[in-house]
Structures are given as C-alpha cells and as structure tokens.
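Reopening closed ticket. The problem is back. First fold of the pair:
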Amino acid sequence: MPRLIVALDLPDLASARRVLVALRPAVDFFKVGSQLFTACGPDAVRLVRDHGAEVFLDLKFHDIPQTVEAAAAAAARLGVRMFNVHALGGVEMMVRARRGAHEGAADTKPPIVLGVTVLTSANTAALRSVGVAGDVPEAAVRLASLSRDAGLDGVVCSVHEVAAIKAACGSDFVAVVPGIRPREVCDDDQSRTGNLRSAVLAGADYVVVGRPILQAPDPPAVARATIEALDMIALKISHRRP
C-alpha cells in the first residue's frame, strides 16, 4: 500500500520543527524541497533525520552528468532515503546520478533515485511550448522508460500516468505521486491532481501531500486520517482482487 510523504514546503527550520513535532510519530517520511533546502541547506535534512524520520530530497537535479553525480553522492552522504533528478537531463546524466548515489552511500543502503517525468503543474500545451512532442501521458511514459533504462529505481509522476508507467516499466518500478488532494485547497497551482483512491487504484507506491495537511486547522488529524484512508482503500482493493 502507498506510504504518505508530507511535504515540508516551509520557509525556515523553526516552521519545519513545529510540523515535525506535531506529526511525528504518525508520519515517518517527509519531503525537503527547494524552498526549505535553499533557506536552510543540509540542516533541513538533518532536522528530519534527528526526529527519526526518512527524507525525500526533492531538488530535481538537472545539470551536466559530472555535476549531478557529485550532487547525488552528497545527497547519499546526507542520509536521504530518496532523491530525484529531471529525466529530461538524459540517460547519461541519470546513469551518473545512480552511480553517485551508490558511491556516496558507501556501506549503507543507497537511496532510491527517481526521474522526474512531467511536473504536475504542466499540461500538453505547456510541453509543446518548450518543444516536447506528444501529449502528457506519452511524454511521461517515454521519460519513465528512459529512467528505467538508466537504472533508476522509479519516477515522480502524476496519478494520471501511474498505470501506464507501471505497464511499460514493471510493477516494481517505483511511482511517487505528488498533487494528491485529500480535500479541496485554495490557491493551488497544480493542474494534474488526484485523490487518494485514484492513487491507490493506479498503483502508486508513495503519495506526497503538502498544503492539504500543513494548512489544515488540525494537521495531525488530517495526516492520521490520510494514512488510515490509504490503508483502508488498499485493503478494500486487495479483497476484491481474485
């Protein structure tokens, strides 16, 4: 069944610490993205780990292969459980990312390395405006296949592409799904979103939820309800399968 990752899309360590104190131990996986990492650097990762939780480092590395390999090794040395690179960086860059992750991990278990397919804020028109051929599902599957060929463990994709990516790349190919909305939120800039049921049905391995939990009147209650809903949906689906 999918695991919940809560996105710490916050401006500083004090805000992140308050969320961690409130949500632990119910939530054991948190995303550190560009905002928090740019403001606080590796201390953001250390803060999450000091609270006994795992880290998805969401920096979407996209650079020349040597630079990405070095960044991947640094991420592994920080002890992150998962990080991502833009699949549009190409196969060689992704191969080097995987190599860096394994080198940086040394004697510990290397992190899960993901290729980012198509951002959940993008649609087909946006892809075409930057010269990417095909519609979103086609582009996502193509980039996922390149990620698999490069030896990555999985991808970040919207809920709408999970089933097609699993069919193309295998059921063990990890799908991390952002843009999951347990309830309606305002001022949302993501266009390809989905709910918990659609994520479980599609075969998502992890769901990333940020604002619906962080902006809730009672974030711990919403987080616990989200985890319970994921478990219940997965159990019902498993009982229906022959």
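Second fold of the pair, where the issue appears:
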Amino acid sequence: MKDLSIYFQPVEKQEAIENTLGSVLYSYSESNFPELNSKGIAFFYVPEYRNGNETYQSSFNDSYRNHLYSMQKGQNWNFSIYDLGNLLPGSRIEDTYFALSQVCAELIKNSIIPVVLGGSQDLSYAMYKAYEELEQLVNILIVDNKCDLGSPDSELSASAYINKMLMHRPCHLFNLAVLGCQSPYLSIYDSEIMDKLFFDVIRLGEFKSDFKIAEPHIRNTDFISIDLQSLKASEFSGTEYSEPNGFDNAELCQIAKYAGMADKLSSFGIFNWYPAQVSTSNHKQLAQLLWYFAEGYSQRCGDFPVGTKKNYTKFTVYLDDIDHELVFYKSDKSDRWWMEVPYPPKEGVNFERHHLVPCDKSHYSNALKNNIPNLWWKTYQKLG
C-alpha cells in the first residue's frame, strides 16, 4: 500500500478504557501511523470549507472523537477500525481534492472503507473521482433535502457538484439516487435531468411514511454522501442547521446502519459539519452516526448474489404486456430480494455489478399483478 501518512495530521492520544471503541481501534497519534494491513473501516476528518461556507475554514474542532472513543465496542466487531487523523487542506483546494481522492482509492483497493467526516459537500466529488482510478462504474446515493446538480457551467461548490460528476470524462457514474428531497427545493430543471437520466428521487415524505423504502437503494450503492443540513433544525443547533422539516437524528442513524450493512458499499461520507456552530450533544450525535455505521458493517452477511445462486430462492414472473419473464432472487440468509435486469454486452463495458438490482418483496408482488416495476425499467434503460 502507498504511504498515506503524508496526507494526515495525528490526533491527540486518547485514554483507552477496556471494551470501548478507543481500546480496539488503531489511531494515528504522535508519530505512529497505523499499519493498514487488514480489511475494515478507516475514519478521518477533512476540515475543508473553501467551496462551501469559507468563514469556517479556520474553525477546527474534533471533540466528537472523545465521545466516539468512549462508546462500547459492538459484540461482533471482528474487523479492523482505524482513525487516520485529520486530512488537512492543501494550499489550494485542488490539492485537498487530490489528496482525498488518492486516499480513498488506496483504501478501497485494499478492502478498507473510507468513512469521511467532511467540511463542505463538494468533497463528494473528490471521493467520486477515487473510482476513476479503480476503473469502476458506481452508484451514488445522496442524503439531502435538495439535488445539488448545478447548471452545466456552474463552478464546483457545496451546492453544485453533481454536475461535475456527470460532466467528468470518463464518466463512471451509473446511477444516482437522492434520498430525502423536499419539493420546495426541487426545481423543474432538477426534475427533468433526474428523469432524463433515469435517476432516482426518494422524497422525504415517502421515507417518513415507510423508512424501509430506502433500504434497497442503500444496498445498491457504492458511495453514500450525507448532508447534515438535511436534518431538521430541532435536531441540530447552530444557524447552519435551520430547516423546519427534515430527518431526525434516529433516522440518520438508521440510514448509517443500513449503509454499513450494504455489501456493495465501499465509501461513506458525512458533510456540511460545522463544529464551531454545534453543541456537545451534536458532537455525540455525530459519534453515534459513525458508531451505527460500524455496527451495520459488523452485520454484513455477504449475500449479494454473484456467482452461484444455490443459496437463493428463484422466482419467475411472466409479464404479458412485454412478453418477457422477470426473475427475482431471495436470499436464504437474510430474506432480502434482488431483481434481474437483462443487459446487452458492450465492448469494454462491464455491467455485471448492475444487472442484479436490490429490491423488496413489493416489487415481486406488483410483478405478479402484471405491473412492470419502475426500478426494472429505469435500470433496463441505463443498461441498453
């Protein structure tokens, strides 16, 4: 593995109490950068705000670590946990993007999930670029109250970074989903682009009605980016968190746990964290988000149906309207569902990871009623 220590500043050494997270993780303290020699999770903080609210660029507070280190280790946490310290900004913001991309790519290649606590959400673009080095088509899920698309000529910023993903060449984005979108913040332009590209918008109201609606989308993603400003104001203190409606803290913890459980997911980011604005309780909440991601990771069961499917129950539904069979698989391990979408082979393009789409039993039930699942149709259009 490349030497990643050059990008990081060590953190203050914490007192390790038996059976707490602080007693089992490998942290970069003093001059001892951890040896990244086994798969697991690597946390680190990137206080970069120049393309967001630059007034916070000099504010630095990582006291969330005190709370994270004091939390109890989960029962089945049989994996390595690293705290790489703080990836401090470069002299130019492009230097920060480059460092973050390099670190994420190297960790992913070595089966270590980068869990990035960010400054502004434009850092998501740098994490996306890590997959360019991996030469891998990816699915991205954005947890946000709006689509940060931006116009084609918008400068890269915390509110306009998805356009850079779409326009970057070569493009490695297969699917984008936005979870928690609110209609007052969804422009006609955003809706048209998302529909045209067969991307997914899961509105906040849909999630509130049934939070399990998010699970297949999370299970289908490689990289999740959470905007903490999607929390409602009553959940987080400070003028930067002022939305009257949004997620509550428990819901974000549930999303983080689902993300950890998703076998496909290989990177995770939490952004628009303004530590100078928030209370001690919010530092604890942030630590809990990280803890629940680790708890979800401990529950991965490796049941993504690749290769042999002998441990899955196969269901076939014939649809008269399109004269086609839909194939579903249910895992005998977890009772989770997948839907098979046929794709034409294209030279130089590998869609193998994308033609088995996570779904739930309702998609199968609707197919039995001769209804083509919207998820199947969108995926088919992208594969075609």
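Update: turned out to be a display glitch only; the data is intact. The longest strand covers residues 173-181. The mean pLDDT is 91. Please close again.
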